[in-house]
Amino acid sequence: MILSDICIKRPVFATVISMILVVFGVFAFERLAIREYPDIDAPKVSVITLYKGASAQIVETQVTQLIESAIAGIEGIRQVTSKSREERSQVDIEFTLRRDVDDAANDVRDKVSAIIGKLPIDVETPIVSKVEGDASPMLWIALSSDEWDAVQLSDYSDRFLVDRLSVVPGVAAVIIGGERRPAMRIWLDRREMAARSITVQGVEQALLAQNVELPSGRIESSLREFTVRTDSGLITPDEFSELVLKEKDGYLVRLGEIAEVQLGTEEMRYEVRANGEAAIGLGVVKQSKANELEIAEGIYEELDVIRPALPRQIRMWVAFDKSRFVDASINEVFHALGIALCLVVGVIFIFLRSLRATLIPAIAIPVSLTASFMVLAVMGYSLNVLTLLAYVLAVGLVVDDAIVVLENIH
C-alpha cells in the first residue's frame, strides 16, 4: 500500500497528481478519434474482373466460378461472397482476424494469376485489392440544376469542387457518384453496313487507326528546334462523320454514311437522382483514424465558403451525413454516463448523509474516467459507443473502490 501511504501523508502531492492526470486526460480526449463502432474490420480482399459484352450468366459460369474454385484452398478464409452481373464479376473474401491482410492479398493474387489462362480471351486481367473498412463515403453532397446537364455538373465538380474538399483535414478522397463523362456515340445502321460490306470490327479498327495522337520526334537546326507531333484526333461529330472506313472502286466510304454520330456520354445505363431530380453526388471518404465529427464540421465550413461562388444554375446540399448518427449515438451514451454519475453520487449522499464523505466518490469518479482517456490515446483506441458503455459500467467499479476507501477512513 505504498501509493495510499504516500497520498495520505502528502495530500498536496496527491492533489497535484490528480490534477495532472485530469489535464492529460482532457488533452488526450480532444485528440481521440470518434467513431460509431471500434475499428476491428476483418481482413477482406476483393477480386474484380471485367468481361465486356457478357451476360450475368456467362460471367457467373466462365469467370466467377473459376475464381471461387481457385481461392478455395487459401488458409484462414472465413467467408466468400460473389456477385455476377453484366460485364462484371466481384468476389469478396473475408479472412479471420488473425490473418494478415497483406499476406492474404498476396495468396489470392497468386491463385488468381494461376487461372488467368483458363479465362476467356476477352476477359480483362482480374484486379486483386484489399478492402478498407472505411472505404465507403461518410458524407454525400448532392448537386443538381435545371439548366446544366450531368456532363456539365460532373465537369464543374471535377475541376472546382473535388480538390477543395479533398484538402479538408481527415479526408482521404472525394469520389463523384453518377459522374458523366463526354463521349462520341456512334449509332450504326446495319442495313447501310450490309450494303457496303462493312462490319463492326472494321469500324472499330478504323477508329483505332485514324483517331490517334502520336509523338513523332523533333526537327533540329542550328538556331531552332521543333517538336513534331502526329495529331489526327477527332473532336466534333462532323469530323467523326468524315472518317474513312474503306475504299471501294475508287470511292471512299465514310462513317457518316453508315452511322449517326452524336456527342453524348460514356455511360447511359444509370443515373443519380436526389429528391426526384437528376443530380450527381460528391462522396467524402475519411481516413481510417480520423475523427468523423471534425471532418463533417470541416466539410460544412468549406461548403459555406464555396456556396457564394457557385454558379446560379447549381443547387448544392448535403444529402447524407453519417456523422449525425454518430454524434447522436455518442451524445446518448454521454447522457447515460452523466445520469449514472448523478445517481451514484445521489444514492451515496442519501445513505451516508455526509457531504464530505460524498465528495470522495464524487471526485474519484470524474478523475478516474478522465485520466483513462490518456490510456485510450496511448493504446490507439477510439471513442465509440462500446468504449463509452464500458465507462458506464466502470462507474460502478470506481464507486466500489471509493466506498472501500471511505469505509477504511471511518
Automatic annotation (TrEMBL):
Its GO CC terms are: plasma membrane
Gene3D superfamilies the UniProt entry points to? Multidrug efflux transporter AcrB pore domain, Multidrug efflux transporter AcrB pore domain like, Multidrug efflux transporter AcrB TolC docking domain, DN and DC subdomains, Multidrug efflux transporter AcrB transmembrane domain
Membrane-spanning intervals of the chain: 12-29, 333-352, 359-382, 388-406
InterPro entries in the cross-refs? AcrB_DN_DC_subdom, Acrflvin-R
Keywords attached to this entry: Membrane, Transmembrane, Transmembrane helix
Pfam families for this protein: ACR_tran
Keyword Transmembrane applies? yes
Recall the GO molecular function terms of this protein's record: xenobiotic transmembrane transporter activity
UniProt name for this protein: SSD domain-containing protein
Q: List the source organism.
A: marine metagenome
